[in-house]
Amino acid sequence: MTKSYLRAGIIISLLTLFLLGNLLPAQAEGSRPVAQSWVWVNPMNAGESIEHPTMVRTLAATSSSTANNLQELKSILRTGLENRQTPINILYTGSESDLNKGLDSGAAGLTEIYESLLAEDDYLKYNTGSAELGYQGPNVGPFNVFFTVVYRTTLEQENYVNEQVATILSTIIIPGMNEHQKEKAIHDYIVKNVAYDESLSDTSHSAYAALYNKKAVCQGYALLAHKMLSEAGVSVRCVVGTGHGENHLWNLVCLDDKWYHLDCTWDDPAPDTPGKIRYNYYNLSDQEMAADHIWTAGDYPACSSSYYHELNNKLGSDTNNQALWQSLLIESELYLLSPEKTAENAAALEEKIHNSMLLYEPALKLRFNSAGADPGSLLDSVLNSALTDTDCSDCSCQYSNYNRGGQNGYYLLEFTFTYHNNTGNANLSSLTLSSGTLGPAFDPGITSYSVNVDNTVSSISITPTAAAAQAAIKVNGSPVSSGSLSQAIALNPGNNTIIILITAQNAAARTYTITINRAFPLPSVVWTPWKEEKTVSQNHPYWTITFSQDVDDSTVNSQNIFVGIDPEGTTPLPGVSVPQLLTAKQIRLSPPSGSEHWSPGTYYLFIRPDVESTGNKTLGKGIRMKFTVQ
């Protein structure tokens, strides 16, 4: 995969041939003092007034590191930037021509070196506001090279960011998640936990502000997304451009070798609405994003794929993960691109609203083609007509531009309804399971769900809650009281269908369907004992396993890596959490839930041959390690 980097910065020549008098070291005979400097301004700060220390004060600083060539200089500079040093002073023993021509003979010396370094790290780049850079010394060398940098954050603040991101990711990223799931978990966390700072404070431009103050502007959102996604193993970039005519920063993400635009800022309602997440700017193509964003497309990877089509393709081809792709389609609201959720004119909009009211649905989302006109001018008449012959007492609507699908003139309409009484309400208000997770997340208007459970789950119980107290509920034909647990339903390996029928007081009925996929038994494994047994202290709470190669995290799960109490692996230890991937090569196992330490005794750690490296290599055999805890 080829990476394309943004050439960053605005170069302003400030000073040439600056005589420093007695500030310079003694000159060799025939030499003359020289000095050159430039100012680099981050594109996000273009047009702002940037103040720097005076040139004389900067050049008087003592060089603390020595570089013999430009690559060494770049390496020292990188370390200084990462440690938030300023000024960064380097004694350069090479020729002056190096400092003027830089790494690329056609570029402008130190500026090219500085920009090439930032082009390798968007997070570092957009954490700097500006920099003054230059050199001074006798024309025969050596030269005092300086970089005086204005940072968005301190080293202490970046350490805080790193600690917080590690903690958050350990909570929201579940081992076995793929790139698509990781991105959605991170997007949702940011939108739910960060509010847009409408005061546009100068301190709100960093990931630190987003985490510590819980407020940020677009730069803070994009930098936090970049940090979290890159730490989770998802390729990510920052894009600088404009939105609605103002400087703006957002992200690109790469999923299955395809790039998409991601704008967490514009997916977060302003003013802040706690808990509300939008997906209007989630994985857009260039065509979709260009409706209201402007950027220099040639500086970035092309985003030519429709995420809606990609998910639908996976839904049709990846039969083992259909529940996953279906959940992503619905939870990211891409289902709104389907004909069932699109109203192409006012008549179709009225019909869909009316039908939703007849079903006593509490809310409705639709994509509406208003032909570019503000939909507010016709909503009153449409809603009044839709109310006819329904029990709806009140309704409200919020709307916003919707660029998904690459078609102009569409709006996202979000309705909420209230009703005089619930005699015809045959909806559920909640639905929970004794095992597994509904996909997609429960919504009263969604009637079809999928759930995956391990083979060890031989039965399941359902807790359905009716929206109306008078409604009757049956689960697979057996009556269940609203809000109560159903009888255990036996599960066979493979797909199992559970039908939930709700009958309203006026005999209106609605059916919800849950398809539960119970995993088939894993093939038996002949376990090969590891060459040495381990004796560990009870006070050592975690077990860490290190592999020789990077591990494919999709194969790290509680079926492939587990702890047992017998050498055949037939009795897994209950309560042991899913293995956690610490680094690309390290996996950590925690004590059973509710315990801070492993209890004294003998344990067996089993690693199935299904565990793979990122290069599709396997162990070739099942491994059994014996642990004795004292």
Describe this structure in words.
The chain is an alpha+beta fold and 630 residues long. It is built from 14 helices and 34 strands. The strands form 9 sheets. It has a 6-stranded mixed beta sheet, covered by helices on one side. A hairpin with a 2-residue loop joins strand 9 and strand 10. Helix 11 packs antiparallel against helix 12 (322-331) and helix 13 (346-358) packs across helix 14. It is flat and about 95 Å long. It starts with 9 loop residues before the first strand and ends with a strand.
Short description:
This protein is 22% helix and 30% strand. With 630 residues, the chain is of the alpha+beta class.
